[in-house]
């Protein structure tokens, strides 16, 4: 019962992060399941089945708050579903001994990306430009969907920054569109895992726990996307992912590091993580205090404070 409650809380927390950043539900949830010695394919299958419900609720909430561009959802989501099905069948064919370190390596890389991305740059400011092109969104969705299924996460960490970097869609609509299109990816990946490993290898009680927590958090996250500083949250989540998957890799048959070396590595990761969160918090507070020109009702300008 304690484990089920923990999974529900993880689902809630992961969806709050995902709905606010446009990434990290799958990465966070899969990392925990691997730490509980769940098989790689079973962990990814559990998370993707739960995501069918969480992404449906999240997408609906984002749509109601005006955070969704349906052209982007269609153009990135359909190729993403194809990539996710291919990734799920590929992962299902790997042995447990091979798949677990492979998945942890992917998750570690994604965690590093999330930590560096949000610590160094945060989210870009609105730079709305030309419409996004199919030739950009199609390959992006295909790659992100494949990585998402094989790594247990990756749709958001790959898709969200890529579209943000294009400067053609405001951040809240990027996050809303990526979260909404992930519904198609979750369905395709789940079908791939059901074909590849069968329903008997999936713990549906765990699916329900993750789903319940995520569904509670989804509408809150869609509202919070306009309210909370994503920079600090991104740095914090990136550190959790790096620390947990470093532990898995250092204890795996690939490395099998001695205990003193493992704890030394954990200490280094923890120190870097704390420094990153501290830096992000300071940068966020500094950006809020930057004076900016604000128009007054008389047609002139006065100096205000960025919020």
UniProtKB/TrEMBL annotation:
Membrane protein topology class: Multi-pass membrane protein
Annotated keywords: Cell membrane, Membrane, Transmembrane, Transmembrane helix
Record's protein name: Probable membrane transporter protein
InterPro entries attached to this UniProt entry: TM_pro_TauE-like, TSUP/Inactive_protease-like
Residues that span the membrane, as ranges: 102-123, 183-200, 206-225, 232-249, 261-281
Listed Pfam families: TauE
Localization terms from the record: Cell membrane; Membrane
Family of this protein: Belongs to the 4-toluene sulfonate uptake permease (TSUP) (TC 2.A.102) family.
Organism: Micromonospora yangpuensis
Signal peptide: none
GO terms for cellular component: plasma membrane
Coiled coil stretches, renumbered: none
